[in-house]
Design goal:
- The protein has 377 residues and is α+β, with helices and mostly antiparallel strands.
- Among the domains are: 128-148 and 219-299, Reverse transcriptase/Diguanylate cyclase domain (Alpha-Beta Plaits), CATH 3.30.70; 308-372, no CATH class.
- It is built from 15 helices and nine strands.
- The protein has helices spanning 6-15, 20-36, 46-53, 57-65, 96-108, 128-133, 155-164, 169-178, 215-222, 224-237, 258-274, 309-323, 328-336, 341-358, 360-372; strands at 71-77, 88-94, 140-145, 240-244, 247-252, 285-287, 294-295, 298-299, 306-307.
- The strands form three sheets. Strands 4-5-3-6 form a four-stranded antiparallel beta sheet.
- Helix 3 packs across helix 5 (96-108), helix 4 (57-65) packs across helix 8 and helix 14 (341-358) runs antiparallel to helix 15.
- The longest helix is centred in the last third of the chain and has 18 residues, at 341-358.
- The protein is globular.
- The two termini are 47 Å apart.
Length: 377
């Protein structure tokens, strides 16, 4: 993508026969975007976005019109929490052309905007380990979870994110449609589906689908205001705040009591609900001094985050079985329920990489064992 140059654009538009009024309007729109954030790309219309993303304009219009459901939908099991029944997470994978334009928006538009400093997921140069480091050595730890995080963020809030970047109202509406999905049937048009002022139908707002490349960053940008409120609330009472996707954490090294922790939880719940989201009560926990503190899969009861014994045992068991002459990749893959040896290999590589981010000396030994494995047997 070429950098924006207003003079080059004006000359090209004039040579193409565009009127002075049209050129002036386009330059004003570009100026609005660049004043907001100089790193944002200038996008003037859906046709311009089609050109930039190399996806046909009729295809994009079809997505915005919501003529058909362009997502492949399936479910995966959620992690089991306490005594609650195991639930499923709905994954929505966009078809190739929609995936292409969503990736373009994610890489070129959303990447130019910064989430709140205490948000550590889905952002360059931020990580799960950094989120855990904020709470290392804490006395008290509060963990909370935002329920149905992506699905709770609707098209109207996505529209406002694009508008806040300086993009025009119609284009912001269209990009909001490209990044969201309807909850109900695409074929059953509701009775109130009058044509909107935009020229498109459907009054029912879509939501952020889990599986779209734009959803994580858009969710971060939507909840920046909530992050500001929650950080301020924590600071008011001497607690440190962080958010990693839908996982909220508060901690303190001060001497306090359970009553103060419970009071903070109730205030956080009010802030979350006032913002239009909901917490998942089954995942709220308060850990006092003297108890094992695990946040985002890492121990945070000392000065630095550490790998849990459960994690170490798991990765070491994988390596032992895969390297054992009587087991090997094929048998271990079947025993652990992996669909393929390739899937098992990628899973284990991810575990070792995670260990490396937390404990490099320990991970060096894991890498040495991993690199010796014979995956052909």
């Amino acid at each position: 993508m070429h950098p924006w140059d207003s003079q080059t654009f004006a000359e090209g538009a004039k040579n193409a026969g565009r009127s002075d009024a049209t050129i002036a309007n386009a330059l004003a729109a570009a100026d609005s975007i660049k004043k907001t954030n100089v790193n944002l790309p200038v996008i003037l219309s859906l046709g311009h976005l089609a050109h930039l993303s190399d996806v046909g304009l009729p295809v994009l219009r079809n997505y915005v019109e919501r003529s058909d459901d362009p997502y492949r939908v399936f479910q995966v099991k959620k992690n089991h929490v306490g005594n609650a029944p195991r639930k499923h997470r709905t994954i929505c994978v966009p078809e190739p052309s929609l995936m292409r334009v969503q990736r373009w928006i994610a890489q070129n538009v959303l990447n130019a905007e910064k989430p709140h400093p205490r948000s550590y997921a889905f952002a360059p140069c931020r990580s799960l380990v950094q989120a855990a480091e904020r709470h290392a050595g804490c006395r008290w730890l509060i963990k909370m979870d935002l329920q149905d995080f992506f699905e709770s963020i609707d098209e109207r809030r996505v529209y406002l994110v694009f508008r806040s970047m300086g993009y025009g109202a119609l284009l912001s509406f269209e990009m909001g449609r490209l990044c969201t999905r309807l909850r109900g049937s695409y074929s059953a048009e509701p009775q109130d589906a009058a044509t909107l002022s935009t020229g498109y139908k459907f009054r029912q707002p879509g939501f952020l689908p889990q599986g779209a490349p734009t959803s994580p960053m858009l969710a971060n940008l939507v909840v920046r205001a909530l992050d500001r409120r929650l950080e301020a609330l924590g600071l008011k009472y001497g607690w440190v705040y962080s958010r990693y996707a839908d996982d909220l954490a508060f901690s303190t090294k001060d001497i306090t009591g359970r009553g103060a922790a419970i009071a903070l939880v109730k205030q956080v719940e009010r802030e979350v609900r006032d913002f239009g989201l909901r917490e998942n009560p089954a995942k709220t926990s308060i850990t006092p001094p003297g108890h094992r503190k695990v946040l985002l899969g890492l121990l945070v009861d000392q000065d630095q985050p550490r790998l849990t014994k459960k994690f170490r045992n798991n990765v070491e068991t994988h390596l032992f079985a895969l390297g054992h002459p009587k087991v090997g990749a094929t048998a271990h893959c079947a025993a652990r329920g992996f669909r393929s040896v390739t899937g098992l290999r990628r899973h284990l590589a991810g575990l070792v990489a995670f260990a490396h981010a937390v404990d490099k000396p320990y991970a060096a030994g894991l890498y040495a064992d991993f690199n010796k494995l014979d995956w052909s047997r």
